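So, could you explain the following?
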Amino acid sequence: MSQGNTGVTAQVVHAQACPVREVLDRVAGKWSVQIIVAAAHGPIRFTELERSIDGISRRMLTLTLRNLERDGLLTRTVHPTVPPKVEYELTPVARELHSTLLGLTDWAERHRITIAESRAAYDAVHRPELLDA
């Protein structure tokens, strides 16, 4: 970045962007998004999450749930039953995030054909070897 034009150093940009990047990395992660969407309709149990999220391992689900709870996006409630019943629920902050995700997915749905057409046009010009595959 040119310091002559803006007077902004790389250190200033990094200091301001780093916390935001850390939050975005967490909430935009593949598993985090799917957990937030799955839990959007109310409390959900671990096994229900595991069944509803294709491809996630038990370990990855556990780690992601812990991180989301640590970040204040999920609450974990243990009910005193035998065996213990554990439920996860979105916090108000995560509900707001879910609304934002719905807007993003709506946008993606509206523009997916346009993007696919743009990719095909770009590839035809810049990557013609992909057309023969």
Summary: The first helix runs from residue 3 to 6. The longest strand covers residues 74-79. The mean pLDDT is 87.
